[in-house]
Amino acid sequence: MNEEAADHGRWRHAPTTAVCCLTVVFFAPLLAGRTFSMVGPHMYAQYPWIAMVAPDDRVRGLGYPQTDHAETMYPLSVFATSAVRAGDLPLWLPFSFGGIPALELGASGLLYPPRLLAMLVLEPIRQHDLLLFVHLLAAGVGMALLLAEWGADGFGATVGGLTWELSGHNAFWLTLEHMAIAAAWLPLALLAATRAVRRQSLAWAAAAGAGIGMSLLGGNLHYVLLSILIVAGGGAWVAGRELIGRGGRTRPRRYLEIAAAALVVGSALGAACWLPLLPAVSDVNRRPASLDQQVADAVPWRVIVGGATALGTDPYPEGKLPDWSHLAYAGLPGLALAAVAAFSRNGPGVRIAQVSCGAGLAMALGWRPLLVVMRAIVPFFGTFHPHEGLYVYVFGVAALAGLGLTRARGWLADRPHGARWANSAASLLTVGQAGQLILFGWNINPQHPAEAAWLFPSTPLVEALQASIGDGRMLPVRWHLPGVWTPPVLAGKTPGAFGLRSGSGYESVIPRRTAMFWAAVEAGQVPPEAPAGGFKTDFWHDRLPFGLMEKASVKLLAVPPGIRPLDVSGADPGREGWLRPLYRGGDGWVYEDVRALPRALVVPAVRWMSDDAAVLRAMAGPDHDARAEVLVVGSGSPETGSVPASDAPTTSANIVHDRLSAVEVQTTGGPGILVLNDSWGPGWKAFVDGVEAPVLRVNYAFRGVRLRAGSHAVHFVYRPFWLLLGLAVSASTLTLLTVGLILRVRWGTGYRSR
After folding, report:
1. Contact, 357 vs 342, CB < 8 A?
2. Where are the beta strands (DSSP E) in 588-726?
3. What per-residue confidence (pLDDT) applies to 243?
4. What does 124-191 look like in DSSP terms, one character per residue?
5. 122 burial class (0-12, 13-18, 19+ CB within 10 angstroms)?
6. What is the C-alpha to C-alpha distance for residues 419 and 410, in angstroms, rounded to an integer?
7. Which of 20, 25, 196, 528 has the most CB atoms around it within 10 Å of its CB?
C-alpha cells in the first residue's frame, strides 16, 4: 500500500507536465517568431495590400475560409489597445457603422480581465498569441485534472486533456481567442463543481461560478451557455450519486446552497456581460431562426463521420482547407479509446461524458426533439447553429478517450504478463494521439511572421484617408463584377485599426436601426427588414446611393485602382463635378464627395414623421434636404417644436473635442437642432452649457439636441447605465474573489507550516 501511495505521489503531476510540454511543442512556431493568424494571408485578398505584397513562403493559409480574426478581431484589438493605453475604456466604437456600442452586446470580449492586462504590456498580435497559448494550455490541464478527479490514470488524463485542448473544434477556431477562452474554463468549472459537491464546499462552488463568470466576460455567449449546461448537468449528476451513496447522511439543502453559491458568483462576475445585454437584445438586428430552419441547417451524418475519421496529418493545399466537418475531429486513437468507454457504466464522469457526446451529436444532426427542449430552456437558442453542438460532442469524446485509455490499460495490466505491456501500449497511444492532433492543428491553420510588415501596415492610400477625413466619414467601395469575386477594400473593421470613421464594419450583432440604415446604403434602397444574422457590408461601386451617403457625412470613398464610383441611378458624380479624386495609386484610389454633410451641423426645422420606416424612406428620397430639416418620429411639442427655415439665422457647428465616448461641439446662431451624424444609442447623454438636455434620435439613426439661439458648448458623453452597473458589479466581485483567494492561500500555508 505504501509503495502504491509513493508511486501515485511520484506520478501525480505527470499528466499536467506532459500536457504542458506538448502544448509548447504545438506552439513552437511562436518561438520562431511566427503567429497563428489570418492577418498576413488576408493581405493577399484585399486592398490596399493586395497590390503591394509579394508571394512569400512564410505566409501560410491563403484562401483560409475563416477570416474573422483578420476582419474583426485583430482590428478591434488594435483599437482597444490604443484606447486603454490612452486611459479611455472603449465603451463605444466610433469607427464602424457610424458608431456602435462596443461592450454592451456580449460579443467583443474586451472586458475579459487577462485581455485588459495584456493590452497594457503587449502589442495586439502578441496579446493574441498569449491568450491562445495560456487558454489552450489551461483547457488541456483543466481536462487532465478533471479526468483525474473522475478516476482516470496518468495516461488517461494526459490523452483526455490533449484531445480536448487540440481537438478539431478548438483547432478549427484556433485564430479566434474567445473560443480558446471558453474551452479553458469549461473543464475547470466542471472540476470545481465536482469538488464542491464531493467535499460539500462553498469555496469550490464559488470557484465553479467564477469559471462561468470569466467565460461570460470572454465574449463567446453561445458556447458559454452550452458550458453552463454541461457544468450544471454534471454537477447535478454528481450530487445525485452522492446523495444516494451517502445514504441520507447529507442534507439535500446543502446541495442547493452549493448551487446557489455558484449561481451568485457566476452571475455577479459576469454581470458586465449579461446585465447590459438583456435590455439591449430587444432592439438588435439578429433574429432567432425557426425550428425548421435550425433542423435544415443540421450537419449531415456523412460529413461528421468524414471529419471525425480524417487522418489530418497531411498539409492541405492552399485554398482547399478544412470545412465544418473537422469540428468533430478528435484523432483516430482518441476516437477508438472513446469507443472503449462509450458503453461503460463505471463512475459519474463516464455518464457525464456519454450524455455530452450524445447530446452534442444529436444537436449537430438537428434532432428535432432535442432542439425543441433546448429552445425552451436555453436563452437565445434560436440564434444557435446546430454545428455548435460539436463543441459539446468533442468535449464528451475527449473525456471518454481519457477514461477509455484508463479502462483499457487496467484490463491489459490484469492479464497474465500484461503489466509489462500496459505502460508501453499506453505510451504509444498517447504519443500517437498527440502527434496526430499537433499535425492536424498545424496543417489547418494560417501562419505568418509576427512582423509589422504582415500586420496591416499603413500604405499611401491609408495615409491619404487619414490626412483628408477631417470630421467626415469614409466608405470602402468594392468593384462590382457580377458572378466574379473581387477583392474588398479595408474589409470589415479594418478602418478602425487606423482610426478611420467608416460606414462599414463586421458585427455578429448590432442595434437594429444601425444595421437597417447601412443596409439601405449597401443595397442602394431601403430593404424590407434589417439583416437577420451577422452583419458585414459590401458597398458596390455601381450602386451607391450618394444622396443618402451624403446625409450620413460620407465624405471619402476608397476604391480599387481605376474604378469610378457610380450612383445607384446610373449617374456619374465624377463627371458632374461633385466627386473629385484626392489620391490615385497602385494600392487604390480615394475620392472626396464635396456635397457630404459635416458630422455636426445646426438644422433650423423639424419634420415630424409617423414611424421609423417613414423616416428612412424620406432620408433615402431626393426630396429631403438634410441641411434644412431634421426628421423625427413623433408629433411636435413645445420642447422640440419646428423652427421655420426662413427665420433661422446663420449657424455654425464645430467639433472641438472628439474622443471615443465623448464629443464636444461649439455652436453659434440658432435656434434649431444640433445634428451629430454619429449613431444614436440610449446611453448617450448631452449637456448644453453644462445643463443636461435630451438626446433625440434624428434622421432615423443619428443624434440630435435642441438648441436655443446663441452660442453654446454641447457635450455628448456616453454613459450606459446598465453597462456601468455591470462593470461595477463585476469589478467588485473580481476584487472580492481575488482577496478571498489570497487569504485562503495564506491561511492554508500558515496552517501547514504550523
Report:
1. yes
2. 588-593, 600-603, 605-609, 629-633, 652-659, 662-668, 672-679, 684-688, 691-693, 696-698, 702-707, 712-718
3. 81
4. HHHHHHHHHHHHHHHHHHHHHHHHHHTT--HHHHHHHHHHHHTSHHHHHTTT-HHHHHHHHHHHHHHH
5. middle
6. 9
7. 196
Single-letter amino acid, residue 486: T
CA distances from 502 to 97, 219, 645 (A): 6, 24, 31
What is the spatial distance between Cα 620 and Cα 494, in angstroms, rounded to a whole number? 27
pLDDT confidence of residue 117: 96
- Burial (CB count within 10 angstroms: exposed 0-12, middle 13-18, buried 19+), residue 416: exposed
Question: In Å, what is the CA distance from 97 to each residue of 203, 247, 273?
Answer: 45, 61, 22
φ/ψ region of 609 (left if φ > 0, alpha if ψ in -120 to 50, else beta) reads: beta
Q: Are 22 and 162 in contact (CB under 8 A)?
A: yes
Distance CA 329, CA 286 (A): 30
In the structure grid, which three cell numbers stand for residue 157, read together? 488524463
Residues 505 and 97 sit within 8 Å (Cβ to Cβ) = yes
State the pLDDT at residue 749: 53
What is the rounded CA–CA span in Å between residue 408 and residue 430?
Answer: 13
Cα 87 to Cα 80, 81, 119, 495, 659: the distances in Å are 11, 10, 12, 21, 11
**Residue 214 exposure: Cα atoms within 13 Å on the Cβ side:** 25
* Secondary structure element (H or E) that encloses residue 449, with its range: strand 447-449
Q: Is 398:160 a contact under the CB 8 Å cutoff?
A: yes
E-assigned strands of 25-117?
Answer: 34-36, 92-93, 100-101
Residue 748: Cβ within 10 Å count: 10
How many Cβ atoms sit within 10 Å of the Cβ of residue 145?
Answer: 20
What single-letter amino acid sits at 598? Answer: P
Question: Which alpha helices (H) appear in 536-587, and where do they start and end?
Answer: 546-551, 573-576
Q: What is the DSSP letter of 597?
A: P
Of 213, 130, 215, 133, the residue nearest 181 (C-alpha): 215
Q: What is the DSSP letter of 543?
A: -
The values of phi and psi at residue 553, to 5°, are: 65, 30
Whether the Cβ atoms of residue 604 and residue 628 lie closer than 8 Å to each other: yes
Q: Of 166, 699, 55, 172, which Cα lies nearest the Cα of 436? A: 166
Which DSSP state fits 554? E
pLDDT at 646: 43
- The CA-based angle 665-669-675, given to 5 degrees, is 45
Q: Dump pLDDT digits (tens) for 436-461.
A: 999 999 988 999 999 999 999 999 99
Delimit the domains of the chain by residue range: 35-99+454-596, 600-719
Report, as ranges of residue numbers, the positions in the chain whose pLDDT lies below 70.
1-12, 246-250, 311-324, 635-649, 748-754
Residue linked to cell 504582415:
454
Secondary structure letter of residue 666 according to DSSP: E
For the segment 265-282, what is each residue's pLDDT rounded down to a tens digit?
999 999 999 999 999 988
> DSSP label at 288?
P
Q: How far apart are CA 240 and CA 260, in angstroms?
A: 16
What is the number of other CB atoms lying within 10 angstroms of the CB of residue 107? 22
Taking every pair of C-alpha atoms in the chain, what is the biggest distance, in angstroms? Answer: 104
Q: What are the phi and psi torsion angles at 322 (to 5°)?
A: -55, 150
B/e letters for 657-691, b = 16+ CB within 10 Å, e = fewer, are ebebbbbbbebebbbbbbbbbbbbbbbbbbebeee
Residues 6 or more apart from 350 whose CB is under 8 A from it?
150, 341, 344, 400, 403
Distance from C-alpha of 529 to C-alpha of 154, rounded to nearest angstrom: 56
What the block records as the C-alpha cell of 514 is: 444601425
Q: Which residue in 149, 154, 121 sits closest to 19, CA to CA?
A: 154
Task: Tell me the residue type at 728.
Answer: A
Sole residue written with cell 481519457: 402
Q: What's the pTM value of the predicted model, to 2 decimals? A: 0.92
